[in-house]
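Supplementary Methods, section 5.1.

A reviewer requested that the exact input to the structure prediction be made available. We therefore reproduce it here, unchanged from the version used in the analyses.
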Amino acid sequence: MLEQATFNLMLACFVAHELDAVDKREWRLIFILRTMADNHAGALFTLLHIPLAFVTLSLVFSASPDVAYYSRLLLDVFAMIHLYLHWRLRNHPENRFVWPGSYVPIASAGILGGIHACYTAIASSTVG
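The structure derived from this sequence is encoded token-by-token as follows.
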């Protein structure tokens, strides 16, 4: 139950960050999108999140326990990498995540991803 709550909270932090990311024009930090005009890059950034969210949600809530387990673990790792990338880009001239409230969901997702990955590893090592 704690494992599920940790994962769901991490996912909620990602959703909150993505809402903020549109407002902050995060596509200006992404290699390919930053070369495009703002209106095109913003539309593409937003539209690409539809299949991304669909695939992610389908995998992490899969009826197959193995698919769900490894997908959640992969999302945990991505959350930690995502936090690291935002930290590395904190001084980028196009970075608009300057309000501390913008970093709360990013940092929370990364920290919760690490906690969930550890919890999952410990729980799976005690099974069997």
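Helices lie at 2-23, 38-60, 65-88, 100-126. These observations are discussed further in the main text.
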